Records
---
Amino acid sequence: MHRFYRASAALFAVLAAILFGTPASAEIVLDYTHDTGFFSSNATAKAALEAAASDINAVLNLNLDAITDDTVTGNGGGGTVLNFDFRYQYTNPATGASVTVNDTTTPANEIRIYVGMRNLTGSTLGQGGSGGSGIAIGGVSGSGPISAAIADAQASYQHRRNEGPVIGTLSGNVSGNSFSFEMGPALGNLWFDQDTNNDGATDSAAVLNANWHFDHTTSVAAGKDDFYSVALHEMLHSIGFGGSETWDDLVSGTDWLGSEVIDLNGTGTGIIDGGGAHFAAGLMSTRITDGMAQEVVMDPTLTTGTRKYLTDLDVALLRDIGYLNASAVPEPSTWFALAMIGGGACYRRRRQRAKQSMEAAADV
């Protein structure tokens, strides 16, 4: 089944190139900086993770601007200058500690996701979310209007990245003059459970292999949790699904307000999980590869012994939150800091289709 899926994704890319050319498009880049040895020693798990990234990349057909100016200077006339120094934060996927990235320069079309393994409790299989952002303001000088310097900086900053969802907004004021910077997708983090028997200790390789199904090219063994499916789910959280400002604007209780999903599904009423970060449990759609019915990737649970692939509803929601071209098939000196916390959510196992609730995971 998965060989067909990979061939289909490749076919979509070929058709897109024929019909529309081959413009650069957004791409998830996996970062193993915090890998403590799991992925470097488990080639099968790493291949499943990278296959999930590749399958999401195949539908992210939009262009994200490069970020070349980490510090943005606003000139207000009369010698007035303000420096807005941006930074990113993400969660170390191995330890849970907050990591600050002071240099926010980012290549065009890149969304970097830091990956790792961590001991999780209960039935939680993995957690993921978008990163956070911060800003410091300094270098205030001159006698001209501060509001003009702010407006100048807002007109030239690059962190919105032109396309994609708004992950969050950095706002505040300087001497009573307000500023606001929308932040686009740039980085995220995700991690997988390495205490699958919940004994409080990191699993041995034998225990991990007994509970995880790592090989994305073979059918999922009975009683095992599919690593590829969890990777697919958590990566979508890491690029704004369930944890972005754009997402929040489109959720009203358990209703979804986005037109792409409503047009496809016929309604947005009651299709969001009560926790607010997933589709409702058990929501069905069709796989983008073969049109077969399947539970959506982005409901809160995964049944042991099964695998999920991207569905039409998963892709429609990506379009709704700002990945506008996401498509399954090509179609004709005082300093201060302000922290914005990124969203996060977790994926849980489900045995014999007994539903379990979603737990929110704070991501900093």
---
Amino acid sequence: MTTISINEFYKDIFKDKCTLTELLFNEQNNNDIGHFNIFNIAEMNSACKGKLVMPYNRRTYYKISLINGHNLVDYADQQIEIKEKGILFASPRIPYRYSPQNENQSGYFCVFTADFMHKSKTALNLDTLPIFSSKSDFVFQITDEQYNEIEHIFMKMNNEIQSDYAFKYDLLRNYVTELIHTGQKLKPIEGTKENHNATSRISSLFIELLERQFPIESINQELQLRTAKEYAENLRIHVNHLNKVLKEVTGKTTTEIIASRITQEAKILLKQTDWNISEIANCLGFDEVAHFSNFFKKQTAISPLHFRES
């Protein structure tokens, strides 16, 4: 699975059509302070043609979203429905997909790196906070009153980031901390689990995780997930359950599907690049050329070298 950096987040959301991309390289991106930014969802939706879907993936940054609108959040075997107002606390620990269900969306979201919060003299250790735990239920339904209170914090952040106050980032860290503590007092939304759509959703999310590792475009690129267990951990389900779901949907085990996709990519690299076999093996996650050769021959009945020459 590709891990999305803060830079890639801007490129993916705003593309080349949106002038908001320029915000990426402003003063917030200074390495001395980490990265922080805040967005008005309604304005961003208008500027970026309403394409607010967040694909299922792992991210290197944290995100807090105040949501006003009908949305679905998918992660693991759970689907959370935000019917009207909610708040979402996303961390690098939990890959998820966020899908607006209509165009009537408003609210705010902020993105920040761990470095940004660590600069505070009273810094929170984000890894130890329950709300950013890998087992966290991180989506919360909120009342109109709670929405207004949280919106006020976001509005203060939005005003502060545009100010020339010398210590504004210290103040912004305090606002983020307030949001986190506010969230940890909330009760999570009950998700839909193991319903008639769960099987197809898990299968779909697995395939999306698998395909996001490809294509291999550089000899410096390497697969991050290789085994059925690694995929199951990223989907937050037991590997036996993942195998059962995929066997039911595709007739194949998780390992067979992974092996087939790696073999497909290996064939492409052998035919369409001049990389040596050692480089290809390394990109595909094999420590030794011999391991790659044995794998490829088991899958195709021919060695990588003979396949390239044929």
